[in-house]
Amino acid sequence: QVQLVESGGGLVQAGGSLRLSCAASGCAYSSCGMGWFRQAPGKEREFVAAISRSGGNTAYADSVKGRLTISRDNAKNTVYLQMNSLKPEDTAVYYCAANYFSGSKYLAPYPHEYRYWGQGTQVTVSS
Hints:
mainly beta
């Protein structure tokens, strides 16, 4: 059973930075592809970033390209989301997601491709 625990959310001023972490127990080493999604009040859950099992391939939503960076440390079974130059529109609950994918380079940008989800962590960016 895979369990995901996010941390690192909080309140930050526009232009500031945060780093989210997602500890994945049950996804040994590089067995799971990972992703970050977010959901703002009254809106649907949207894709933010994804990283392949190997960590060598990444994908980003257009709205976050150049500002957010996804990475992973397979030795620690942890995925990170470095968030720079934050904007008020980045305010949302951020969710970590994981699933077993056969391809080591496969990237999954859709929520339905993930079986396992964390509880979410709130990110609030003030103007």
